[in-house]
Specification:
Blueprint (H helix, E strand, L loop, with lengths): L27 H4 L1 H15 L2 H8 L4 H15 L17 H9 L26 H11 L3 H26 L13 H7 L2
């Protein structure tokens, strides 16, 4: 399979795409938007000393407001993800390992795309690349696979340019993530 114009990407651009097709450049942990919003909300609410007046002004128990502020503070202190291919995400991700072993940037370069749909796959390992890719595909409502197919169609350079335009227009991965507890359900099986 061809390299899909990887040579047209700057090294830092390769961290925008995860091997599984998630576009990290639209992911909030990568962009840090919620972190900044949590920091600002914490500053405002804590500065107002809302805990003192929460029972009267909001009808909330002080303990609940204190807990809310603690959660906001934790969110505001979260480490930004550098992108899957720059050390972020799951360090034991089997897709990172598989694509790395094959010299690919993403699964779009693999003849077996999508290996999770491969009926002949007999691997019973719950953390195998096909099983994890299947779980991710369900969590992202198929968007990651659509991305991999789009990369095959137009190459990396055009795909990244298209995604960056969408991100500038407000698109985030949260726009496509399933409301179901996909990861939680997946982990309960094993």
């Amino acid at each position: 399979m061809k390299k899909l114009d990887r040579d047209k990407l700057a090294t830092e651009e390769t961290r925008l795409i995860a091997p599984c097709g998630i576009y990290c450049g639209a992911c909030d942990p990568f962009l840090g938007k919620s972190k900044e919003l949590a920091r600002e909300l914490f500053r405002i609410i804590d500065g107002f000393n809302i805990t003192d007046v929460a029972p009267i002004v909001l009808g909330l128990e002080q303990e609940k407001m204190t807990e809310f502020l603690r959660i906001l503070q934790q969110l505001s202190e979260a480490t930004r993800c550098p992108g899957c291919l720059a050390g972020g995400g799951n360090p034991g991700c089997p897709m990172k390992a598989c694509t790395g072993e094959k010299g690919y940037l993403t699964c779009s370069e693999c003849e077996k795309l999508s290996c999770s749909a491969d009926e002949t796959h007999k691997d019973d390992d719950p953390m195998s690349a096909p099983r994890i890719l299947g779980m991710i595909t369900r969590r992202y409502a198929g968007w990651n696979i659509e991305n991999l197919k789009r990369i095959r169609e137009v190459g990396y350079r055009t795909f990244i340019d298209e995604m960056q335009r969408k991100v500038r227009q407000g698109f985030l991965t949260s726009d496509v993530i399933s409301g179901e507890m996909v990861l939680t359900e997946f982990l309960k099986k094993f």
